[in-house]
Amino acid sequence: MGDRLMSLAEAYLEINNTVGFILDSSSVYETEPWGFQSEEKFLNMVLEVETDLHPDNLITVLHDIEAGMGRIRKVGKYESRHIDLDILLMDELQILSENLQIPHPRMHLRSFVLIPLSEIAPELIHPLIGQTIKVLAELCQDDSMITLYLKRDKVESTFRNWKS
Questions:
Q1: pLDDT tens digits, one per residue of 75-98
Q2: Is residue 152 annotated as a catalytic residue, yes or no?
Q3: Catalytic residue among 86, 142, 143, 153
Q4: Which of 35, 101, 122, 164 has the most CB atoms less than 10 A away?
């Protein structure tokens, strides 16, 4: 909702300032909503971040960033929002708790996750499925619209200059 690219830029900068160093980022893609109907289209991207945070602390920091950007979380309901930050993978970790699932439980079903993730980590193996991200992206049956919005080589400069 709102200025979608500005929201991504704000989250990118906040992640870099509070979570850890951004090692890589995908292109930004415009996508259809997944799991609900909306006239709004979303912008999606994937970041690779180096962090010292424990997964439980990391998800708390990500939720704090979302809240600071105006997101009000509603459990079990998909809806349009200013920002949605998820942990997709974290090394080889496998966590299943009430508050956190790593790997993200539906990432392999969503082209809007797999396509940008395959840009930065095509040979990374999903720890539960045992396939590379590239193969999962090729096999994904999600035929939702996904369109390049901002090329990967323009993301960092665009976002870092956003507040200039």
A1: 655 555 568 899 999 999 999 988
A2: no
A3: 86
A4: 101
